Amino acid sequence: MKSTIAALTATIALTLPAYAAGDAENGEKEFRKCKSCHTIASADETIVKGGRTGPNLYGVAGRTAGSQEDFKYSDLMTAAGEKGLEWNEEDFIGYVQEPTDWLKEYTGEDGRAKMTYKVRKEEDAADLWAYLSSLGADS
Questions:
Q1: pLDDT band (50, 70, 90) for residue 17
Q2: CA–CA separation, 50 and 118 (whole Å)
Q3: Would the pLDDT of 14 be above 60?
Q4: What's the mean pLDDT in 8-27?
Q5: Span 116-135, mean pLDDT?
Q6: Class of residue 96 by CB neighbours under 10 A (exposed 0-12, middle 13-18, buried 19+)
Q7: What is residue 128's three-state secondary structure?
Q8: Other CB atoms within 10 Å distance of the CB of residue 135
Q9: Rounded distance, CA 19 to CA 108, Å?
Q10: For residue 108, how many other CB atoms are within 10 A of its CB?
Q11: Nearest residue to 71 (alpha-carbon basis) of 135, 130, 114
Q12: How far lies 18's CA from each of 94, 130, 133, in Å?
């Protein structure tokens, strides 16, 4: 009986839509620290006009790492994309907290990430992910 309930619970959990665990409203506030380097803009609309040091973060959820055509990524980020990294909440949170170390571990290669800013708190990183993932093409 217990195994039937556990299987039913797992099935229900797997069929529910996945939502980011963070708070998108707080993530929007957190993004203020990011906009000096990053913009958020779709083909039709600029949501946040920011810098061009970093890539446009519109539609980052589910995007292959290092794949935005009009941006020159670090060798580590390009390698992560070649290894199949598609941005999801868990990987994004790890990356923004320790960009270079995280990419080195993911790729197994040496080098440096271009992003030097670190989101200090995991909660802030989760909130930032919730905000960014709410703005993508599939939102």
A1: very low
A2: 18
A3: no
A4: 60
A5: 97
A6: buried
A7: helix
A8: 22
A9: 30
A10: 8
A11: 114
A12: 19, 11, 11
Question: Do 67 and 84 contact (CB within 8 A), yes or no?
Answer: no
Residue with tokens 């992003």: 115
Q: What is the DSSP letter of 86?
A: B
Structure tokens at 109: 């290669």
Question: Residue holding tokens 């083909």?
Answer: 43
Please identify which residue in the block is written with the tokens 């440096």. 112
pLDDT at 20: 57
Integer Cα distance of 29 and 105 in angstroms = 29
98: phi then psi, degrees, rounded to nearest 5: -150, 75
**CA pair distance 31, 129, nearest whole angstrom:** 10
* pLDDT score for 77: 98
Which amino acid, 76?
L
pLDDT at 13: 41
